[in-house]
Write a structure and sequence with these properties.
351 residues; mainly beta; Immunoglobulin-like; six-stranded antiparallel beta sheet; 1 helix; 4% helix; 47% strand
């Protein structure tokens, strides 16, 4: 069997927790949904096969020891050799369950599927994706190309770094796996929170007659490039797995500004000058953001100006200055578009 792979490179499975970028300017996800996705990535593990590698020769020979006229003699049988047949099997597990949370108009949104060759020999698989799945609320728009491998094995899709899968074909050795990304754009016109859009990934063995054949069926000279017989495994050499996007129109944005004033009436940030920070929190869309907590550490080389922390229009659930290191913490509880923007202000003095 040819040992080709994605642009001539092989990518072993290396499961790590995804690293979510933390942008102060825009928070576009419900906290609970993000934590759920993170936990799924951390828990994901490849599926391993078991058994002797394909084409391994099992050979044995019997021996008989005996006596004739008290003379010890020995006879040996012929050697019987058996070449282990190939089991053709594949397992695909969607990694973003229960859903990948997105916003209308989001681009480069990747569903992650862990694909494992659970057979006992190298096997080549064809991959295909579709976003027209009955029963959902909208159709994600598949990119062209839509199928990528986790090239840098960091567990998260990196546009421009992860390589498109050449020819939509992947070759894996026994017990080898790869994280596959199916990348789509989300339509901009969705206005209802909670709407879902499904995408399916189908993986099919290239071994002739394997896909869809009853598990346990034998394929003469169907394994290891035609060098040995094959047996169709429990998945019949194919798998179709569905991943789901869930749209939330609610967005929370946080914007921070700084204004400097010094004792000379100027705006130069010199020792003794005051920096006034304004943090503006806004929620837009039809839903609400729950458990909203804004934190901001007091910068180094400054001293917090006691009594300057204020929330407007408020009131917040709580607004405190404390901790180690010292910082501002404001708990808003639940916010929606009817009670934002909220503005947090406080002063520090440059040491």
């Amino acid at each position: 069997m040819m040992q080709t792979f994605i642009e001539g490179r092989r990518f072993p499975v290396m499961r790590k927790g995804p690293v979510f970028s933390k942008e102060v300017a825009v928070m576009k996800r419900y906290l609970v949904a993000v934590l759920t996705v993170l936990a799924v990535f951390l828990a994901a593990q490849p599926v391993w096969a078991a058994g002797t590698p394909v084409n391994t020769v099992i050979a044995n020979q019997a021996t008989a020891d005996y006596l004739i006229n008290s003379n010890p003699l020995s006879s040996t049988s012929n050697t019987v050799s058996t070449a282990v047949a190939e089991v053709i099997d594949v397992v695909v597990v969607w990694q973003d369950s229960p859903s990948l949370v997105v916003s209308p108009g989001d681009a480069d949104q990747a569903l992650a599927f862990l694909m494992s060759n659970t057979g006992n020999g190298a096997e080549t698989f064809d991959l295909s994706a579709t976003s027209t799945v009955p029963g959902d609320d909208f159709d994600p728009v598949l990119q062209a190309p839509a199928l990528y491998a986790d090239t840098n094995t960091n567990g998260v899709y990196d546009a421009g770094t992860d390589l498109a899968i050449a020819g939509s074909t992947v070759t894996l050795n026994a017990d080898e796996g790869v994280l596959i990304f199916v990348v789509s754009n989300i339509p901009a016109g969705i206005s209802t929170d909670g709407f879902t859009g499904d995408t399916q990934l189908t993986v099919t063995s290239q071994t002739a007659a394997a896909a869809g054949t009853t598990p346990g069926s034998g394929l003469s000279n169907g394994g290891d490039g035609g060098a040995v017989d094959a047996v169709v495994g429990s998945t019949s050499g194919t798998a179709t797995v569905t991943g789901t996007y869930q749209v939330f129109t609610t967005q929370l944005t946080i914007l921070k500004n700084a204004t400097v004033s010094n004792a000379f009436g100027g705006t130069e940030p010199i020792p003794g000058a005051t920096i006034t920070y304004d943090i503006i929190v806004t929620v837009s869309g039809s839903g609400q953001a729950d458990s909203v907590v804004v934190t901001d550490p007091i910068p180094g080389n400054t001293t917090y100006s006691s009594g300057t922390l204020a929330v407007n229009p408020g009131p917040a659930v709580s607004a405190t200055v404390g901790g180690a290191p010292l910082g501002v913490a404001v708990d808003f509880g639940t916010l929606d578009s009817t009670n934002t923007p909220q503005t947090i202000t406080f002063d520090v003095t440059i040491d």
